[in-house]
């Protein structure tokens, strides 16, 4: 019986993630080119294939693209941590460590603290070689 319940919950969670990603496709998420890799209640991984329009005049990925990638990944975790509620970004700290100009970028975000009204998360962006490019933190507020 427990196995069936676990399978059912897993299928429900997968269907919810697929629906969430489909709903995000026509928004800035899709415009930027974000793709869901994996997600759970307190962690998510998204990816972005670098395209020419992601670069700045110096030929490296624009800082705004990287900040948006962090915000999207952390926002996804906030949405999953507070099902049925609206959450908004109230603070975003971004530390640019290394530049990148091509390849697949992967952003992992994790919930690190939760209070009654706010969530605090951290995120990391790595390149396809596993080099840490960006580290950031964010706060999100529940605005149900």
Automatic annotation (TrEMBL):
<dbReference type="InterPro" id="IPR003736">
    <property type="entry name" value="PAAI_dom"/>
</dbReference>
<feature type="domain" description="Thioesterase">
    <location>
        <begin position="59"/>
        <end position="132"/>
    </location>
</feature>
<dbReference type="InterPro" id="IPR006683">
    <property type="entry name" value="Thioestr_dom"/>
</dbReference>
<dbReference type="Pfam" id="PF03061">
    <property type="entry name" value="4HBT"/>
</dbReference>
<protein>
    <submittedName>
        <fullName>PaaI family thioesterase</fullName>
    </submittedName>
</protein>
<keyword id="KW-0378">Hydrolase</keyword>
<dbReference type="InterPro" id="IPR052723">
    <property type="entry name" value="Acyl-CoA_thioesterase_PaaI"/>
</dbReference>
<dbReference type="InterPro" id="IPR029069">
    <property type="entry name" value="HotDog_dom_sf"/>
</dbReference>
<dbReference type="GO" id="GO:0016289">
    <property type="term" value="F:acyl-CoA hydrolase activity"/>
</dbReference>
């Amino acid at each position: 019986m427990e196995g069936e319940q676990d399978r059912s919950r897993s299928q429900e969670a997968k269907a919810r993630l697929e629906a969430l990603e489909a709903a995000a496709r026509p928004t800035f998420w899709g415009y930027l080119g974000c793709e869901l890799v994996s997600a759970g209640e307190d962690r998510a991984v998204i990816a972005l294939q670098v395209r020419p329009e992601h670069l700045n005049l110096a030929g490296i990925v624009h800082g705004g693209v990287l900040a948006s990638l962090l915000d999207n990944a952390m926002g996804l975790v906030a949405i999953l941590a507070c099902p049925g509620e609206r959450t908004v970004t109230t603070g975003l700290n971004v530390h640019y460590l290394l530049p990148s100009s091509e390849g697949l970028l992967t952003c992992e975000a994790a919930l690190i603290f939760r209070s009654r009204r706010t969530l605090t998360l951290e995120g990391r962006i790595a390149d396809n070689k596993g080099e840490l490019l960006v580290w950031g933190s964010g706060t999100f507020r529940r605005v149900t």
